[in-house]
Amino acid sequence: MSSTPVPPRREPGLHAVHVLGNGRSGGGAQVRALAAGLVARGVRVTVCAPRCAERTHDFTGSGAHYAATALGADPAAVAVLRAVCAGADVVHAHGLRAAFRVSLALGRGSAPLVVTWHRGAYAEGVRAGLVRLMERRAARAAAVVLGASTEIVDRARRRGARDARLVSVTPPPLPPPPGEGRSSGSGGSGSSGGGGTARSGARDARAVRRAALGARGRPLLLAAGRLAPGAGMRPLLDAARAWSVRGPRPLLLVAGDGPARRALQRRIDFEDLPVRLLGHRSDMAELVAAADVLLLPGRREAPLPLVREALRAGVPLVAAESGAVRDLAGDAAEFVPYGDPRALAEAVGGLLADPARRARLRAAGRACAARWPTAEDTVAQVLSVYDELAGRPVRSRRGRSAAPG
Question: Which of 282, 280, 253, 279 is nearest to 178 (CA)?
Fold first, then answer.
């Protein structure tokens, strides 16, 4: 997809305050990229986030001002947010928790609130009711809700959002494997004399990596997610038991941690399942590059940087139904109902038995990656929302002013 050209902004004084929650997810990286794009166009940007998020993402390095805020919604934290947001032209909250805190801080006559929902919150029992209340308050307080998937946009409208729109957010890439540069995932077009050598070297490195993971001469499956309710781990182990009778026996690696890890490990040991729980990993790009199939079995919103990495690398993807994954991957992934181990096992078994089908998914994934919106597209869309809310003329694609709406 071609990017939308956005000329540098010259109007003085537009000040946008961005508020994050913990910043540990891809939202922090996305805000960092958005802040850099806005600053380059003359917008004054202040990022409110915990200190750990500033250390991770270096918002000040993007040209933004940084204000340290606490994670809670206690009166002191809300007072700090209120002071930082005073005088802003627009306040932009990223994520449900941040939006809830900002809704408490802003009063009548304050700057308009934009809320970006990068992913939907999943909860059960009493906490599910609390999440619904937070979603309702955030949606109704926002002048505009920007959803990272059609599923989230629909959810915001159900919660009472006055204006909910799909935002073109491309997930940030995963860090490359240590000591390696980022490849295109499609073999590249290096020099005519070295292309074959480079591809051969990449295949050799992949074989070494797979052998180190215990997958020499057998299919390697990779799953990722929090080991907690809603992550689809129990159906995943049911499916692993079904495909463990195949020969050669596939190995399933599960990256992630959580409160259910100990119980899952007991079951793996008791049933002698071909599954390894890896815990939290910082080398996800390396794991994806080694895998034959990536599995995302959870009901929770999938880690979109991982989806991006799999599609770019040409790794076939099997996922539980998810609006965000479907929006990003389209027909480059296979989808199964959440919590259905039989459907999951059949989808994986079918892919392993059909090299042509895997090849079609690899090609579709790379083609899909080539059509993704750019960071420039996201900045253009967000900037047009700011102009609209601040009462400024909205710029057209050619850089001329156009009437809002």
Answer: 282
Owner of token pair 């941040």 = 98
Closest CA to 318 of 209, 230, 260, 232: 232
212 lies in which domain range? 198-371
- CATH code at position 62: 3.40.50.2000
Together in a domain, 118 and 133: yes
Q: Read off the amino acid at residue 218.
A: R
> Residues 302, 319: contact at Cβ < 8 Å?
yes
pLDDT in tens, the chain (405 residues): 444 444 444 445 699 999 997 655 557 888 999 999 999 999 999 999 999 999 989 999 999 999 998 877 778 888 989 999 998 999 999 988 899 999 999 977 789 999 998 766 666 667 778 888 889 999 999 999 998 888 889 999 999 999 999 987 766 666 655 555 544 444 444 444 556 666 666 677 888 889 899 888 899 999 988 888 778 899 999 999 998 888 889 999 999 999 999 999 999 999 999 999 999 888 898 999 999 999 999 876 667 778 888 998 899 999 988 767 887 888 889 999 988 999 999 999 999 999 999 999 999 999 988 888 888 889 999 999 999 998 754 443 333 333 333
> Which residue in this structure is represented by tokens 């992630």?
256
Based on DSSP, count helices (H) and strands (E) in the chain, helices before strands.
Answer: 15, 15
Same domain, 362 and 396: no
Judged by DSSP in three states, 213 sits in: coil
